[in-house]
């Protein structure tokens, strides 16, 4: 198939960006979206043009590095997958595709479609961990039984890949879904209890510091999340925060 | 040629590590505060090492080429992590894990290291659970285990098909905690582009800030390389796009010996190649072999009909299918080690029984597992007269719970539904057992330069067992290196902060800058990927699943020509002082073009077959790998001498004190 691409180009964080037209020809159904861009980039390099910068690494949908806003949707039209797992069979011959970076104040553009998501790291650094040393001299792993439903819910929350689709999708550019996933994971496990109150308070504070917006319970984040992180986690986050404030 | 000494401690196997650990020299807390350690790479080995070293009191600088330590490719490991916990009460023990790993590695690993690995494995699980890693649990709330290739017990802990992700996020949380404390300084989007050696000791690195393009000098008392494997030398592999050999290769060029580079793991269950545009291959976890049965048609005409699209696999009767692993290896069946499963798939496809359009694929079928699980579920639910449809539907739900994310990924990539039709799989490059030579303390031949995780060669011999990479990465990072590094640093407590104005830093920085400006001013006509693809094809055809003398010699001469062509005709766009991924890629491919030659030389030197290294000239009558213990029971360690083709071979003899070397059998 042949496609028209309109791609955001921006030299650096402080430069003015713009949409630029490209043509992608002879695209096969089996190509992934990023492979389609690889081919375009090779053509650009051969022509002496500047290739399009975009983030990607594992190309298996798990590292969270890829991050494209495709036709107005984070990670494109297919639900539950990252951009690297999106294949061209989801598009039609002759279609025009708009490709933009994540847009949020807390995610400044590095170049073109690549953005800086270190704000997420700083939210985790504010308390997204259990303060245990790595001596290995802890309890035996089976010393505390964890009810399977709790373990499963903690796992579901922990599958967040930190890609930032939730932020890019949210009209407030809020990182609440991301934050709630980590807070939930640790709140559901016995190992996370000791620092429970401190954790949620510090992480929420850091989210505000980074310039993310507040949550207004729209739920767009969950719709676009490639890992299906549930809104239940945001409810749990709110209750965790309330408990931390009141006790 | 010299003989290398691994410094393995003497004494009984089970006391080596505890004795050694009890006598390693210590660095006092006050002195640790004055010592800087650089850790390159923040995957399982790197993040765990950085966190542990910082916790002990050292000042750590950690480097990653990704935008966050959470993205290293350890995250993509699917199936699980081994540990000798014997929770399943199936006769597992530290010795058995040790023995399975030695045998799985085809008797080409170092006994003392492997035993240590097995010994600390149980602590890894305790540690991870304490960090809040959500491993799979049973209905009693206790940890669940499954089985992996090459073993007859269930010792693999898992978190669905995302075990690597959960373990990496655990290590990431540990390093994040130290970053918050200011004990680790994190340099994301930084690539190590050279090792700096001052008076024979590793004293720092040159790194390129990939966003600003700035070339930076970083000094430290020791440098720890946790930079993963070099599978991307094959262009197509299951590695991440950015995975590369550059850090390890630069260390090699500065004096670190490269060991057994030809030991490459070709993973049997990957999604087959679909076309020329393909950028990478995707693994389907080995855990699927717990429940999936591998087969090809028994009759060639059926295989041909399937390839032509005239016949569907589900239409083929049971008696017309050849479950070739179960047939050839009844004791281990579908759970033979990876090297054996891969070669068996290649053998069937080469013989004309392959199934997709290209003829390079075999089936991985879940139909019987779905039925089996469905029956159990029906019994549990008290459905005595459940229809076949009900059973299948119940079974699908169980399979979905266990492997749902893998099935989804398969469907997304191939547009086939594996709940309804068997998966098609084919072997692909996955892991590299070779790497930087290290002694028992994980130190390379450059004093002060250490290597951990996949970057070193030490624990897996010629073939790694499934679910052992995560184990080794975390064992090295949490429980081995933080202690053994003291032995070296104890002598360094009087060394002040490393002066990065030293001429060695200056010279290394100049070399880096010259290389960058060479690439940008070369103005050739061909892209970096063009060369990478050609190199990959040479490596896959001649140094892949099967190798022979003639092919390897041909590959060596072709790689040399390709390297010359690369330097003459490569085109790298953009500027030096900007974000420029093509420039980063050019540097990595330049190193792959050198490594590829050394891999072929190593494969050519090893006139035997062992594990993942299969020389067609050396096989048994049944087509199994034929080792030559009299002449090749050694670790090959190559010393760089100005050009990869001039590398000098050193040997570390493998003395098996506790296990008897024998012909590996999984029949």
Please report the total strand number of chain A as a whole number. Answer: 7
Mean pLDDT of chain B: 96
Biggest interface reads:
A-B, 80 and 85 residues
Low-pLDDT stretches of chain B are none
CATH architecture classification of the largest domain in chain A: Orthogonal Bundle
Strand order of the largest sheet of chain B: 6-2-1-10-18
CATH homology superfamily name of the largest domain in chain A? Alpha-helical ferredoxin
Main β-sheet of chain B: number of strands, strand sense, barrel status? 5 strands, parallel
Low-confidence stretches of chain A: none
Sheet with most strands of chain A: 5 strands, mixed
Distance between the termini of chain A: 61 Å
Tell me the strand percentage band of chain B. 5-15%
Number of domains of chain A: 2
The name CATH uses for the topology of the largest domain in chain A is Fumarate Reductase Iron-sulfur Protein, Chain B, domain 2
- Class from secondary-structure proportions of chain A: alpha+beta
Count of the domains of chain B: 2
Counted by DSSP, the helix tally of chain A is 8
Strand content of chain A: 5-15%
Structural notes for this entry:
- The complex is a heterodimer of chains A (247) and B (667).
- With 247 residues, chain A is α+β, with helices and mostly antiparallel strands.
- Chain A folds into two domains: 3-110, Beta-grasp domain (Ubiquitin-like (UB roll)), CATH 3.10.20; 118-246, Fumarate Reductase Iron-sulfur Protein, Chain B, domain 2 (Orthogonal Bundle), CATH 1.10.1060.
- Helix content of chain A is 35%, strand content 11%.
- Chain A contains eight helices and seven strands.
- Chain A has helices at 33-47, 118-125, 148-158, 165-169, 176-188, 196-209, 220-224, 232-246, and strands spanning 3-9, 18-24, 69-70, 73-74, 96-100, 109-111, 114-115.
- In chain A, the strands form two sheets. Chain A has a five-stranded mixed β-sheet. Chain A has a two-stranded antiparallel sheet with strand order 6-7.
- In chain A, a hairpin with a 2-residue loop joins strand 3 (69-70) and strand 4.
- Chain A starts with a strand and ends with a helix.
- Chain B is built from 18 helices and 20 strands.
- Chain B has a five-stranded parallel β-sheet with strand order 6-2-1-10-18, sandwiched between helices. Chain B has a five-stranded antiparallel β-sheet with strand order 12-16-15-13-14. A four-stranded antiparallel β-sheet of chain B has the order 17-11-19-20.
- In chain B, strand 8 (201-209) and strand 9 form a beta hairpin.
